[in-house]
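Hi F.,

I've been meaning to write this up properly since the lab meeting, where we talked about keeping a consistent format for the predictions we share between groups. The idea is simple: the sequence comes first, exactly as it goes in, then the structure tokens exactly as they come out, then a line or two of notes. No screenshots and no reformatting. I'm using this chain as the first example so we have something concrete to point to.
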Amino acid sequence: MWLSLLTLPACSTTPQQAPTVLSSQRCAPLTRCHLPTTVPATNRQLAQALQQQRQALEICAAKVNATIECQDHD
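Output, unedited:
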């Protein structure tokens, strides 16, 4: 009787498996975009302010795109 109980799967020991290792790539946190404040008084200053705003938006878009790329690979 005891011998038959030991042959049941519930009574036997199972081999130990190696722990599962989860790898997770951490994406850099998304930070707020900074658009410089300007108060242009001349057309030249207005043109410079426009260029600064465009550059700031390009930097912001690059940050967002990098975060999205990272999250898509996660």
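Notes:
The mean pLDDT is 81.
The two ends are 53 Å apart (CA to CA).

If this format works for you, I'll send the rest the same way.

G.
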